[in-house]
User: Which sequence fits this backbone?
């Protein structure tokens, strides 16, 4: 009977040992992130922080980012979130996290001491996890995340390949761009690549032109259901892809290409233009250190409205509202986004800092191409800072419609009708 | 022995036995039964993964019934399965028959044919991408297949295999079959080796040719193994998705969607956990149905 009791006790201990919440000792905070290229630097900075403050920061990497996303949602469901984490999902999910009491409101901290922390950071980066007054999610206005770097998506061009086609500098207008691509085709160079097997990149490119053609008010009005996707302006957006297809601008297989393959194509000088984010500077440097390339805004299609590119915070970190180490976690993020640490982070990871004071020294040593990316920051916008986002289902049909146009399966009008059909269905569902 | 003492001893014995199986039962319940029941529960709700759940009854199921893309995905998986059942298993059977004979380097071939299933689907997908790359560099095809076709006198066959809706799914199915045939090969080879060689000798003495021996001895004796291979092929092929993600990312419009990618999109892309669970339930029922039919078929074959 004694053995039986011991066996029972062991079993209970084993069973319950795995069911406890993530608990860190009073002087240890836990940070979960997805940034493979920044992991070593974050660990190094965490060690420095421990020497300075005595607080240990355990940095755990979970990659790739979609697996990280799934894990964060699962951890939230099980209430085992770490002290510091990031949410890579759309703003409505961030809002759900906040409503569930899982994300700390950092507004008071940001505004303390004459808003010194908030003022030290670029506003476009800070906007990533900021909820404005009257937001549609019903979230108390405030700042809920801390940006640790900045990024944006633009077009890149290979100087050597352009020179081969007799192009000294790339065109800034859409018609000029088409002419450049024809010149490239004449000398046997594939004009354009992007990882459009990943739908968000198509969405990003298309939304640049939607803002350019109809302006943000009309884009948001469409999201609200007040303007139809069959509107002539939206047809123009779809037609851009048909024109690029007809002119042979795209690399073969662009709609199934993952971004890593698109990056490879550009780095190995198979293609003259690419559409990619500022993170690609690291990728290209690793793949082909002698690659000579520059950065440009996507060529404007219309003069009606300014062209907007996606950009802002590269990564924002949030503090678990229920963490017993909440104050320590906030203190660490304050330290991490201070000038010196931001310079270190940028130096090691070749990224743009979120701290304003860190930018001048960073621009002095980072890859000049990254400096060019920085110039584009003034044109940035991002779904995370829009007052509302499109329904994910509608977005998917929109992106797949563009894929269908590129492979010649649908006309712009057909794609627009399909999107509107799903939009109507979702609107009807929302009104029920 | 006192009956009370005896029953206490029996109880103790039973409890001890129960304790030994309890960890396995608990693990099974926690990791299989609970998620399964929870999935069914979630399928009746609208839920974004975080926040409150809303009970919506059978709404997710009725929506699935009219979701054309979902049923297209089932058809795509069925098509891949059909190719795997025919092409993959025919290849596996042919190679197993070849290796069952006393051939030189037989062991070597067995190892070589078993390499593809050992490889990860991601690796096979990446290799497939490299072989099927439709791009050009300085006028030369980058992809191995197109390069081979262009230099071997078939430039008209050069094609964007994964970027054309008319070839994308078949190309994926062929790569999937190449990756999967090794399992069937090994199982069929083991099955062939259990057939008594004296049966073949007797048939030859009776004047039976190779075809007659195959149809009258090999095939009937192998039917149970073939059925097992078929069931495993169906279940494996219907659930293919990693290969597709690594070959065409989020897909060529909707031409390469399969049920599992559909479930993933509903859950991760659209944040519709309830709908994804309903899709999973429906898909599970389809698979159970197929497995049940195959079991009945197998029983009939055994009786015959």
Assistant:
């Amino acid at each position: 009977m004694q053995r039986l009791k011991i066996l029972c006790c062991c079993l209970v201990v084993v069973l319950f040992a795995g069911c406890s919440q993530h608990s860190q000792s009073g002087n240890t905070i836990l940070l979960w992130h997805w940034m493979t290229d920044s992991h070593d630097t974050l660990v190094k900075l965490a060690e420095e922080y421990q020497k300075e403050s005595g607080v240990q920061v355990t940095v755990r990497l979970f990659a790739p980012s979609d697996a990280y996303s799934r894990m964060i949602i699962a951890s939230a469901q099980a209430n085992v979130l770490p002290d510091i984490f990031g949410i890579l999902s759309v703003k409505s999910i961030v809002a759900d996290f906040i409503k569930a009491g899982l994300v700390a409101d950092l507004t008071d901290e940001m505004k303390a001491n004459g808003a010194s922390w908030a003022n030290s950071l670029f506003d476009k980066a800070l906007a990533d996890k900021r909820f404005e007054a009257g937001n549609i999610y019903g979230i108390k206005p405030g700042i809920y995340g801390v940006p640790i770097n900045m990024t944006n998506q633009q077009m890149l061009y290979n100087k050597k390949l352009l020179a081969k086609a007799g192009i000294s500098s790339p065109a800034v207008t859409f018609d000029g761009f088409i002419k450049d691509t024809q010149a490239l085709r004449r000398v046997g160079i594939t004009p354009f690549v992007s990882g459009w097997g990943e739908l968000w990149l198509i969405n990003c490119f298309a939304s640049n032109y939607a803002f350019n053609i109809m302006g943000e008010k009309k884009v948001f009005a469409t999201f609200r259901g007040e303007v139809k996707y069959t509107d002539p302006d939206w047809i123009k957006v779809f037609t851009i892809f048909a024109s690029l297809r007809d002119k042979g601008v795209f690399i073969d297989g662009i709609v199934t290409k993952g971004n890593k393959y698109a990056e490879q194509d550009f780095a190995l000088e198979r293609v003259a233009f690419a559409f990619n984010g500022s993170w690609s500077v690291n990728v290209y440097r690793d793949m082909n250190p002698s690659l000579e390339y520059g950065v440009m805004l996507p060529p404007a299609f219309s003069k009606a409205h300014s062209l907007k590119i996606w950009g802002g915070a590269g990564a924002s970190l949030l503090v678990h509202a229920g963490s017993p180490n909440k104050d320590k976690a906030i203190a660490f993020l304050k330290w991490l986004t201070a000038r010196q640490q931001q310079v270190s982070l940028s130096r090691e990871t070749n990224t743009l800092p979120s701290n304003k004071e860190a930018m001048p020294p960073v621009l002095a040593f980072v890859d000049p191409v990254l400096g060019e990316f920085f110039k584009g920051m003034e044109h940035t916008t991002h779904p995370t800072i829009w007052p509302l986002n499109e329904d994910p289902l509608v977005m998917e049909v929109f992106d797949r419609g563009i894929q269908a146009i590129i492979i010649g399966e649908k006309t712009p009008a057909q794609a627009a009708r399909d999107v509107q059909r799903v939009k109507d269905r979702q609107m009807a569902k929302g009104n029920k | 022995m006192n009956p009370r003492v005896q029953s206490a001893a029996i109880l103790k014995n039973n409890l001890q036995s129960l304790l030994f199986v309890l960890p396995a039962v608990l693990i099974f319940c926690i990791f299989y039964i609970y998620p399964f029941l929870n999935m069914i529960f979630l399928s009746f709700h609208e839920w974004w993964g975080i926040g409150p759940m809303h009970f919506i009854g059978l709404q997710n199921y009725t929506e699935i019934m009219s979701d054309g893309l979902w049923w297209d995905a089932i058809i795509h998986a069925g098509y891949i399965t059909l190719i795997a059942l025919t092409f993959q298993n025919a290849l596996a059977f042919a190679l197993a028959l070849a290796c069952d004979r006393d051939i030189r380097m037989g062991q070597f071939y067995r190892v070589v044919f078993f390499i593809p299933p050992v490889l990860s689907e991601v690796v096979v997908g990446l290799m497939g991408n490299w072989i099927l790359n439709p791009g050009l560099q300085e006028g030369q095809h980058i992809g191995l297949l197109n390069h081979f076709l262009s230099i071997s006198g078939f430039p008209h066959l050069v094609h964007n295999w994964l970027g054309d809706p008319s070839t994308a799914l078949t190309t994926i199915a062929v790569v999937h079959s190449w990756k999967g045939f090794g399992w069937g090969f090994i199982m069929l080879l083991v099955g062939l080796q259990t057939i008594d060689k004296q049966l073949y000798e007797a048939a030859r003495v009776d004047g039976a040719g190779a075809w007659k021996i195959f149809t009258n001895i090999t095939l009937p004796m192998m039917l149970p193994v073939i059925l097992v291979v078929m069931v495993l092929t169906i279940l494996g092929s219907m659930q293919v998705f990693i290969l597709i993600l690594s070959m065409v990312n989020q897909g060529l419009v909707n031409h390469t969607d399969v049920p599992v990618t559909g479930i993933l999109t509903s859950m991760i892309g659209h944040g519709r956990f309830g709908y994804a669970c309903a899709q999973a339930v429906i898909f599970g029922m389809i698979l159970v149905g197929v497995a049940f039919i195959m079991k009945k078929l197998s029983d009939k074959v055994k009786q015959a």
